[in-house]
């Protein structure tokens, strides 16, 4: 199992996980790569329950 923290309230680069890189959000790139990992059975994205 992999857990990816996806915060939007970073001090140095707010909204980093949703910033576009090569036309897609950075979080998309990370999840895409993790889904290729044969050692992982499950993937969880942890987000805050309120706006930061």
Automatic annotation (TrEMBL):
> Where would one find coiled-coil regions in this protein?
none
Q: Pfam family example for this protein?
A: CTP_transf_3
Q: State what protein this is by name.
A: MobA-like NTP transferase domain-containing protein
